[in-house]
């Protein structure tokens, strides 16, 4: 990845135009030919630096709900519990973290009232108490990751 | 199941735009609508906030960001908005949320994510941010991730999740 790749990534994280020829608009603002932009984007996607190109949805605006939840899992049961938790289709992300609360996951449901039912089902399945930390407010962040 | 036009559009774009000179035209063709209609609906969905961000989704590991930390802080409730805004304006902060405290065991109400090339870099960023944002007096913890088990981005109308 060179300097131009980094400029492309940083620029596109700020947003992508919704117009007839969006790549032409981006290439003009970067001062490069559109063919070069398309070719570089393809190779950034192929090499896995970019995972996809398009929308990030707002679950709540779509009528759904998201929450962040945590479990304190005994180390001896960690693999077993991670399989139990990940088996729920509503579990979107799951991270092991270095803390006594060592499993952190996001639950996404189609309707808000389903969140509690999923968390209760996870408690029943694992026998562990789930801490539920839904978002109260989100603070806007511009660039996601500087390349 | 009958899907609305907006649902069909969201479904068609969720895996990303094609890389070609008229990407919206290509998607409009699949949906059997005009490019102008697609652009109009996407702009509306963006304005309504259904589409929160429209751009590239970057993977942090290939960019060399190997350490990922969730940092939690216990700040006074009356200052959480001010401090949340300050923290989220810092370029190294990727996400920033206010969440409810969970009693004495987990008294934190402000959360942010910081990615770094390694743990030392994240810790150095956090030290600097505590000073710059005036967070030094408040209790905080850094939770580094050890492993990511599952990551799913997709949405499917009707409540079914697409995996992978």
List strands and helices in order, with pairings.
The complex is a heterodimer of chains A (147) and B (164).
Chain A: H1 3-13, H2 22-30, H3 34-46, E1 50-57, E2 65-71, H4 78-86, E3 91-97, E4 103-109, H5 114-126, E5 131-133, E6 137-138
Antiparallel strand pairs in A: 2-4, 2-5, 3-4
Helix pairs in contact in A: 2-3
Chain B: H1 5-13, H2 23-31, H3 35-48, E1 51-58, E2 67-73, H4 80-88, E3 93-98, E4 110-116, H5 119-132, E5 140-151
Antiparallel strand pairs in B: 2-4, 2-5, 3-4
Explain what this protein looks like in three dimensions.
The complex is a heterodimer of chains A (147) and B (164). Chain A is an alpha+beta fold and 147 residues long. Chain A has 2 domains: 3-46, Orthogonal Bundle (Arc Repressor Mutant, subunit A); 65-133, Alpha-Beta Plaits, CATH 3.30.70.3460. Chain A is 37% helix and 23% strand. Chain A has 5 helices and 6 strands. Chain A has a 4-stranded antiparallel β-sheet. In chain A, helix 2 packs across helix 3 (34-46). The radius of gyration of chain A is 20 Å and the shape is elongated. Chain B contains 5 helices and 5 strands, in the order αααββαββαβ. In chain B, helix 2 crosses helix 3. Chain B has 2 domains: 5-48, no CATH class; 67-144, Alpha-Beta Plaits (2-Layer Sandwich), CATH 3.30.70. The model of chain B is unreliable at 156-164 (pLDDT under 50). By secondary structure, chain B is α+β, with helices and mostly antiparallel strands. The two termini of chain B are 23 Å apart. Chain B has a 4-stranded antiparallel β-sheet with strand order 3-4-2-5. Chain B has helices spanning 5-13, 23-31, 35-48, 80-88, 119-132, and strands spanning 51-58, 67-73, 93-98, 110-116, 140-151. Chain B is 34% helix and 24% strand. Chains A and B meet through helix 1, helix 2, helix 3, strand 1 and strand 3 of A and helix 2, helix 3, strand 1, helix 4 and strand 3 of B. Strand 1 (50-57) of chain A pairs antiparallel with strand 1 (51-58) of chain B.
What class would the helix/strand composition of chain A place it in? Answer: alpha+beta
What's the CATH class of the largest domain in chain B, please? Answer: Alpha Beta
CATH class of the largest domain in chain A: Alpha Beta
Tally of separate domains of chain B: 2
Which chains have the largest interface?
A-B, 71 and 74 residues
Number of helices of chain B: 5
How much is the average pLDDT of chain A? 89
Structural class per helix/strand content of chain B? alpha+beta
Element-by-element helix/strand order of chain B: HHHEEHEEHE
Radius of gyration of chain B (CA) equals: 20 Å
Q: Got a strand count of chain B?
A: 5
Q: What are the segments of chain A in which pLDDT stays under 50 over at least 5 consecutive residues?
A: none
């Amino acid at each position: 990845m060179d300097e131009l790749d980094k400029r492309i990534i940083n620029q596109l994280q700020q947003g992508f135009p919704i117009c007839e020829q969006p790549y032409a608009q981006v290439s003009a603002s970067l001062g490069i030919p559109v063919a070069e932009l398309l070719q570089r984007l393809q190779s950034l996607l192929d090499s896995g630096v970019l995972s996809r190109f398009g929308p990030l949805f707002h679950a709540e605006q779509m009528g759904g709900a998201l929450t962040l939840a945590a479990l304190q899992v005994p180390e001896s049961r960690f693999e077993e519990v991670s399989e139990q938790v990940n088996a729920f289709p509503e579990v979107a992300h799951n991270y092991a973290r270095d803390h006594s609360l060592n499993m952190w996951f996001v639950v996404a449901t189609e309707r808000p009232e389903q969140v509690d039912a999923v968390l209760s089902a996870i408690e029943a399945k694992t026998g562990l108490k789930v801490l539920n930390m839904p978002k109260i407010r989100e603070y806007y962040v511009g660039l996601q990751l500087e390349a | 199941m009958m899907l609305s036009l907006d649902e069909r559009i969201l479904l068609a774009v969720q895996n990303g735009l094609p890389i070609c000179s008229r990407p919206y035209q290509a998607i409009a063709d699949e949906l059997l609508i005009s490019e102008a209609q697609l652009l109009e609906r996407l702009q509306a969905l963006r304005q309504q906030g259904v589409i929160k961000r429209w751009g590239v989704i970057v993977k942090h590991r290939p960019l060399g960001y190997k350490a990922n930390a969730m940092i939690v802080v216990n700040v006074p409730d009356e200052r959480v908005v001010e401090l949340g805004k300050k923290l989220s304006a810092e370029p190294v902060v990727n996400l920033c949320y206010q969440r409810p405290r969970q009693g004495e065991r987990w008294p934190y109400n402000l959360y942010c994510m910081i990615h770094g090339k390694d743990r030392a870099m994240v810790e150095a960023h956090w030290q600097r941010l505590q000073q710059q944002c005036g967070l030094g007096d408040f209790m905080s913890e850094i939770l580094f991730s050890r492993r990511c088990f599952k990551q799913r981005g997709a949405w499917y109308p009707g409540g079914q999740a697409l995996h992978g």
